[in-house]
Amino acid sequence: MEYKYAVAKISDIDNLLEKEDRQTMYHLLNVINNRRELEGKTLNSYIVINTDEPYAHDVVDILKQNGHWGSGKNELLKVVGINKLVKAAHENAVSKGWWDEDRSFGEIIALIHSEASEALEDYRNGRAINDMWLEPEDETMMYAKPCGIPSELADIVIRVFDACGRYGIDLERAITKKMAYNATRPQKHGGKVI
């Protein structure tokens, strides 16, 4: 991943670095600022937010709308982190009562499968793959329910996140390892038709 900015908390610099490293760090920051000044540039000034703040998505949306959010390389998922999304999905499911009684792993897998079946049904009913629409569940709902194949695929991921949160699975690590392994596999490995 290519970085455009490097951010370090002053308290981390002061508390986590040895004295010599701390002095080197502050020296390098001063060198950068002095050289920017020689080039006629102003002192760097930034607004920094922690990606686990509940409004981080909103800030990224504003950055995207104004052309300040990369060229597709930096997605919010990478910034927020998969395991933070796992935690949020599981906490939401718990708060809505879905874990008041424990469920079997088989039931969880069946629920994930049911979301895939709903996506397939939308496709079989002639819905376009990217088609999304809103549907009010009933008059008491403040928001309309997102529907369509993209929504069903999101439900699959959310259910996987919830399961990983329930069982303490480090999904981010598992995905990283699996993708690294998949990159080493031969073309169309396994010889299967689909």
Automatic annotation (TrEMBL):
One of its GO terms (molecular function) is hydrolase activity. Keywords: Hydrolase. It comes from the Bacteria. This is NTP pyrophosphatase (Non-canonical NTP hydrolase). The lineage of its organism: Bacteria, Bacillati, Bacillota, Bacilli, Bacillales.
